[in-house]
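Course assignment 3, question 2. Fill in each field.
Student: A.L.
Task: Predict the tertiary structure for the chain below.
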Amino acid sequence: MSRTYKYTGMLVLLLALLLPACNLNEATTTPENVYTQAAQTAEVAQALTAMSVSPTPSITPTMAESLTLEPTNTLLITLTVTPGGPTNTPVNTNTPRPAESTACDNALFVEDVNYPDYSEIAPGASFVKTWRFKNLGPCTWTEDYRIVFSYVSDTGKDGIFDPPPPAHFPDETAPGEFLDISIGLEAPTEADGYIVVFRLQNDKGFFFGPEFWVIFVVK
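Answer field:
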């Protein structure tokens, strides 16, 4: 064999070995292959991340947790007054009253002699109210006994009513007898309803008998 054929055969063998290697190197270094490998790597990393991280569960409040209860147990009190009628919350304008003594003196209210309840009085007008009583005690009433102002209904305004001074009994009254007792009043100038309450007082300063009153409307 000539030297030329020997070199030619070796060259062919060398080329046969190099061509697959070149093809393999080309197949692994093209841009398309690089991008494909990167995409696959990213997908694997994303899958691994999804498997390793547990999602945080969302918490939905229950019905009891989402409701806020407001207190509704405040008691609301209203007072409705009939138009033209008197209010009925008493205001005591007196100093402390003497203790009562019923051992000797007692009285029974019989009737209103004049100005029945809810009588109309002109603003600022003066009038005399009279009541009838019966002496129920064992003692005789003298002219030193008196009728005294106790309190007036609340009109919501101070100084609107001037309490009258005490008035003495007009006559002596023996046990079992009747007596008409009167006191002078001046109506307020403010249109409203009024209740003026009185008591009977003996010569020693003790109250006796029931409370009694005059109810009138300034109109």
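Instructor remarks: The helical segments are 3-29, 31-52, 63-66. The CA atoms of residues 144 and 190 lie 34 Å apart.
Grade: pending
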